[in-house]
Amino acid sequence: MFLPIDLKHFISNNLNKNIKDLAFQKNPFEAYDWKWILNQIQAKQKAEKKLPTWFNNDDIVFPSTLSIEQTSSEPLAEYKSTLISGENIIDLTGGFGIDCFYFSQNFKDVTHCEFQEDLSAIVQHNFKVLGKDNIKTVSGDSIAYLEKTTETFDWIYIDPARRDDTKSKVFLLADCTPNVVALQDLLFSKSNNILIKVAPLLDISSILNELSNVKYIYAISLQNEVKELLIVLEKGFNNLPKLIASNISTNGKLITKDFVFEDDAFCTLSLPQKYIYEPFSSFLKIGVYNSLANEYQVSKLHKHSHLYTSEALVNFPGRQFEIEKVIPYNKKEMKQLEGTKCNITTRNFSMKVEEIRKKHKIKEGGETYVFFTTDLNDEKIVIISKKIKTD
């Protein structure tokens, strides 16, 4: 799979070109399929920001663009690798191998399993190129391999496919492939520790209903967008799980906090004070709305709004704003925003952002941030604020 230098130069020199335009050109490399070359260019284009280590190595061979789209980004894989360690780990759904690459930094031996033979061969080549000699690649059915092997592992990692046989999205773990719900006994016969990656849309309560021995649930956001939910199962663990929210910023800064599973936590409600806070999406995902208020000594605007306020500025895990004005939502008051440019957020409000912009002739952008929400008296209000810059 090692590429000749002239082909590597051709791929690098055409990364800024439109693939559709390139497709009409004549293939200058008779020994290589033109569609395959175009795929190398397109896949590498997609990897530039997501997988810089792979992008910056000209000896890397890329799989289909779909594999690039489905794989973890490097910041997520690197963070994930810091959560676990040991002698050996097996990845039952290896894909392009990004997770295994980072697991290999904290494990002596890593086994990468991939059903697609061609993808497995590409990954094996790339691990050699990247100098990873502690990763073994296995091509074929990983569950069959796990059943037959006599080896046990410190950790098992699995990322079930979230589409059924008709390619439709599914939202229950039992409907994913492999079915980790049905496989729990097999998995625990080979390891005491299991790490499962699931869809960000999956509901926390459904995870707890479907799986046993759940010790931790991580909600991980990258640049304030939830990208992964991670579930840690420990054999014999029967207590309430810890819920851990993590946000990785553009500069790589990590903000993380763990909470005990919220049952009937109580928090204070308040009208808007001097500051308003919008939690990172990962903190909202784990659903500890009241515990979040108590932890950071702030109040909620409404039990269903999930916006927080305080008189003194606190180091809150999310976007922070200084309130300039609070007005009731009515036709008369809204005239002051007509024709202005501002950023709009809605929380517990009956209209969508697009509807608000259209109805009140508000342009997008600017330095003003406006929250349309409901207060503790069930009154619709509009909070006009300025964003506080944080590191």
Describe the structure.
By secondary structure, the chain is an alpha/beta fold. The protein is built from 15 helices and 16 strands. The protein has helices at residues 5-13, 19-22, 34-50, 52-55, 65-70, 74-81, 98-103, 117-129, 142-148, 184-190, 204-210, 281-285, 289-295, 331-334, 353-360; strands spanning 86-91, 107-114, 135-139, 155-158, 193-198, 214-222, 225-234, 242-248, 254-260, 275-279, 299-300, 308-310, 318-328, 341-346, 363-374, 380-388. Strands 3-2-1-4-5-7-6-8-9 form a nine-stranded mixed sheet, with helices on both faces. The longest helix is centred in the first third of the chain and has 17 residues, at 34-50. The chain starts with a helix and ends with a strand.
Topology overview:
Blueprint: H1 5-13, H2 19-22, H3 34-50, H4 52-55, H5 65-70, H6 74-81, E1 86-91, H7 98-103, E2 107-114, H8 117-129, E3 135-139, H9 142-148, E4 155-158, H10 184-190, E5 193-198, H11 204-210, E6 214-222, E7 225-234, E8 242-248, E9 254-260, E10 275-279, H12 281-285, H13 289-295, E11 299-300, E12 308-310, E13 318-328, H14 331-334, E14 341-346, H15 353-360, E15 363-374, E16 380-388
Parallel strand pairs: 1-2, 1-4, 2-3, 4-5, 6-8, 14-15
Antiparallel strand pairs: 5-7, 6-7, 8-9, 10-12, 10-13, 11-12, 13-16, 15-16
